[in-house]
Design goal:
The chain has helices spanning 17-26, 60-65, 72-81, 85-88, 118-127, 141-148, 153-158, 176-183, 186-204, and strands spanning 51-54, 94-96, 106-107, 110-111, 135-139, 167-170. The chain has a single domain, classed as Uracil-DNA Glycosylase, subunit E (3-Layer(aba) Sandwich). It is built from 9 helices and 6 strands, in the order αβαααβββαβααβαα. It binds iron/sulfur cluster.
Length: 206
């Protein structure tokens, strides 16, 4: 991948590989020509993380705050996972790596899809720095398509056991998910209890 897409590359010999990599992610400007605003990568991670929230892309509120899932979707996701905000934002345990790290702006019917440059540029490098991850939540169709290939989100969520123990597919927790949950009541009765059990175990390293 051409380095012309980067911002000012960070290579600080006083920092370890992980900190250098994260500093370069945070300085990334690869999509500056595609975005209606300045790039603002929003990620959370550490080399000790045990669980990854692989999501879609920040929305406008997260773009403004710089804090992942600091919106109604985040409240819903934490409730699904059965964890507090303190647990969710503990980077020592939980990494939050969307398919696109910057808010992609608006498109017809909602937010635009994640920037296509982001995952190929950063994802594998970052995953290589987190050897203790036991569970990855695939939140929404974009994350599922990237990791699992083509397929229907609803079918994957319904058949979540087929992706364990490594992956747990979920719908995106946007406001639309309240309608989706009403139409798919098995999600609350069958999937969420299993999700909370798997999240608890992953955070305990079991
Ligand atoms: S979306 Fe990803 S690749 Fe694009 S500018 Fe942001 S961090 Fe860089």
């Amino acid at each position: 991948m051409s380095l012309k897409w980067y911002g000012d590359l960070v290579s600080d010999t006083t920092m370890n590989d992980f900190d250098n990599l994260l500093a370069n992610v945070r300085a990334c400007r690869a999509c500056h020509d595609l975005l209606p605003h300045q790039p603002r990568p929003v990620v959370q991670m550490s080399p000790t993380a045990r669980l990854i929230v692989a999501s879609q892309a920040p929305g406008s509120k997260v773009h403004a705050s710089g804090v992942p899932f600091s919106d109604a979707s985040g409240e819903r996701l934490r409730e699904w996972m059965g964890i507090t905000s303190d647990q969710f934002y503990d980077a020592e345990n939980i990494a939050i790596l969307p398919m696109g790290f910057c808010y992609p702006g608006k498109a017809a019917g909602g937010d635009a899809p994640p920037l296509a440059r982001c995952a190929p540029l950063w994802r594998e490098k970052l995953l290589a720095q987190m050897p203790q991850v036991g569970l990855t939540l695939l939140v929404g169709t974009h994350a599922q398509k990237h990791v699992l290939g083509p397929g229907r989100m609803r079918d994957r969520v319904r058949n979540f056991r087929g992706f364990l123990p490594r992956y747990f597919p979920l719908p995106h927790p946007s406001w639309r998910s309240t309608i989706w949950m009403r139409d798919n009541p098995w999600f609350a009765t069958d999937v969420l209890p299993a999700l909370r059990y798997r999240v608890r175990n992953a955070l305990q390293g079991t």
